[in-house]
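Bug #77: duplicate submission created two jobs. Keeping one. Sequence:
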Amino acid sequence: MLTYVDDILITGNSTTAIQSLITELSKHFGLKNIGRLHYFLGVEAHWRSDGGLHLSQKKYIHDLLHKANMVSSKPQPTPMLSTSRLTKDATTSFDDPSLYRSVVGSLQYLFITHPELAYSVNRVCQFMHNPQHHHWKAVKRILRYLAGTSTHGLQLRRSSHLSQCLCRC
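Kept job's structure:
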């Protein structure tokens, strides 16, 4: 069971146990079972015909691109060039450090469906205290990568040993 403020996500391998938990919780709290998961905390869930699940953050990425004024940016094939050298004193300070911190902080939340961002986002996080123009350029590269991969995500396959029911209350 995952709970965030007034949203609850319940999963398990026994539909009976899940239903029993929902019934017990509704005795003490006002619950509304809104059925299968479709959207939860910025993560979109798309059910496949084979019972699998595709998790993505397309809307979250679009909102992030909008925040950075990069909605119509040209997509890049990788989040960072292998030759990128980020150092602490290579260029002048970035004009809007709060924008840098906000965007980089938002990028961290994308690890849920884009684990391939871990290295590049970790690199730009190291310069939150004093972001410079070349750091922002690296962040923009990550954003351009996301512009081309916004529908990518995690594919979960149904298994007899894993969850058979995922519902949101």
